[in-house]
Amino acid sequence: MTVAADVNQAERQGLGADWAAIALFCLLWSSAFAPAKIALADCPPLLMLALRFLVAGPLCLAIARVRGESLRLGLPALAVLTLLGLLNNALYLGLSWSGMRSVSSGFAAVLISANPLLVALAAGPLLGERMTGRRLFGLLLGIGGVALVLRSRIGGAGEDPAGTLLVLGGLVALVAGTLAYKRLAPRAGAGPWAGNGVQLLAAGIALLPLSLAVEDVGALRPTANFLLSIGWMIFGVSVGGYFLWFRLLARHSATAASSLHFLMPPLGLGFGFLIAGEAVPLADLAGVVPIALGIALVTLPARRA
């Protein structure tokens, strides 16, 4: 099936059949920022991610075997999955988590939520996805809501510029990973659990030597906060969240699936407040309404004659 046919099928189907998966994915994905911020107090970011991926990867492969997915992948498939793992895990999270050492988890969630606009701008020329006027307006409206939250965070919290640049680098990697998945993943021919497991292992193998070279491994402290946080990131996010994310990408257009990130600012700020004790300015809440409207305009299927 061509990319254009896949997009048309996704538009006809819409996201209505996947609301349960969407809601769970949004909760899992946005919940990763606050526990990561807590874990960073007891472990360097790249080492934390390497440990997380090297545990979550074999777990996904074990699940794949139980579910009957083939683990016999050729070199082309392994090359594709390795690239996706480097983009969607190693680069995206490595840069983002490094940035969160000096910026709040809620602020990082807001920045990452800008993913849909960049994906929508690139999905047309790269994937052949159609940018309608309604979809463009929805994206801009959602970004306007994100901007309200962003202005509040920059003006009131005084976030670190260097950390902000690192998180923005993670955003670019995530956008590239989203587009690469839509273009390359069907060629890999791997099941969802097997594909996710290989990607996680590739990211962990890439990050571990880098961590040993540039980070103070002795800074790792196996406190209760660290163990609980990394446990949640392994089982709740790396295993559950990424599986749902790739499932949604496989069923819907890249722009529609990525537009779900507009839910991340309020959820990310909420988890930052509840888990990490981060303050949430009232001005942040003003962005929730346009964000929700933007999601509706982007994800609802277009009417057909």
Question: In short, what is this structure?
Answer:
The chain has 305 residues and is an all-alpha fold. The chain has 15 helices and no strands. The longest helix is centred in the middle third of the chain and has 28 residues, at 161-188.
Explain this structure.
It is a single chain. The chain has 305 residues and is mainly α. It has one domain. Helix content is 77%, strand content 0%. It has 15 helices and no strands. α4 runs antiparallel to α10 and α8 runs antiparallel to α15. The longest helix has 28 residues. The protein starts with a helix and ends in a 6-residue tail after the last helix. The N terminus is likely disordered.
Q: How many β-strand runs?
A: 0
Element-by-element helix/strand order: HHHHHHHHHHHHHHH
* Mean pLDDT level: 81
Shape: globular
The number of domains is 1
C-alpha termini separation: 24 Å
What is the radius of gyration computed over CA atoms, rounded to a whole number of angstroms? 19 Å
Stretches with pLDDT under 50, minimum 5 residues? 1-12
Helicity level? over 70%
- Structural class call reads mainly alpha
Mind describing the biggest β-sheet? none
Instruction: Kindly estimate the percentage of residues that lie in beta strands according to DSSP.
Output: under 5%
What's the tally of helices?
15
Properties at a glance:
0% strand, 305 residues, 15 helices, disordered N terminus, mainly alpha
How would the blueprint of this fold be written?
Blueprint: H1 3-13, H2 19-30, H3 33-39, H4 45-66, H5 75-99, H6 105-112, H7 115-127, H8 133-157, H9 161-188, H10 192-214, H11 224-251, H12 254-258, H13 264-274, H14 282-285, H15 288-299
